[in-house]
Design a protein that fits this description.
It is a single chain. This protein is mainly β. It has 1 helix and 5 strands; from the N terminus they run ββαβββ. It has a 5-stranded mixed beta sheet, with no helix packed on it. The longest helix is centred in the middle third of the chain and has 7 residues. The radius of gyration is 12 Å and the shape is globular.
């Protein structure tokens, strides 16, 4: 099994074989509701998370939406 290194919300993480953004959220127990994902500077549509591969060196930001007034 190979490991890859990514930046997740500014922190370097080493993961083993997490092939998609959808599975990455599960791996790190991150919520899937009220979040947006940016991959290497580009926002990824929610419908594409399950088909979008995570690769060595990727920069991923998971942004949580918070309500308020």
């Amino acid at each position: 099994m190979t490991s890859i290194s990514i930046k997740l919300n500014g922190e370097t993480k080493t993961i083993s074989d997490t092939p998609t953004l959808d599975l990455l959220l599960e791996h790190f127990s991150l919520p899937k509701q009220r979040v947006a994902i940016e991959l290497n500077g580009n926002v990824v549509r929610r419908i594409d998370w399950a088909q979008t591969p995570v690769r060595d060196g990727d920069r991923i930001e998971v942004v949580h939406f918070v309500g308020g007034g």
